[in-house]
Specification:
The chain has one helix spanning 3-12, and strands at residues 17-23, 36-51, 54-59, 63-66, 73-75, 81-89. It is mainly beta and 90 residues long. It has a single domain, classed as Jelly Rolls (Sandwich). Strands 1, 2, 3, 4, 5 and 6 form a 6-stranded antiparallel sheet that branches. A hairpin with a 2-residue loop joins strand 2 (36-51) and strand 3 (54-59).
Length: 90
Amino acid sequence: MTEDDFRELLASQGCDDIRENSYSAGHSTELHTHEFDAQLLVLEGEFILELEDGKHTFKAGETCQVLSGTVHAEHTGEVSARTLAGLTHF
């Protein structure tokens, strides 16, 4: 998916917060939850999303979604990553 397509998708879904994030190589968070839904498009590098069923790797052009209240962690591998995130607050 292209960045323009993703931005259009977010707008059509009423996403109220769009932001670009950069993660350094070796980035890792603890397991946590959010009080918002998040959709991400990987712009550069690889973004690793850890869920209850394991780790899932997303590469440039791929998208993922984390619903409000989902226990997850965010990681990068040996390279940095840049994502475009659309957040929908409740």
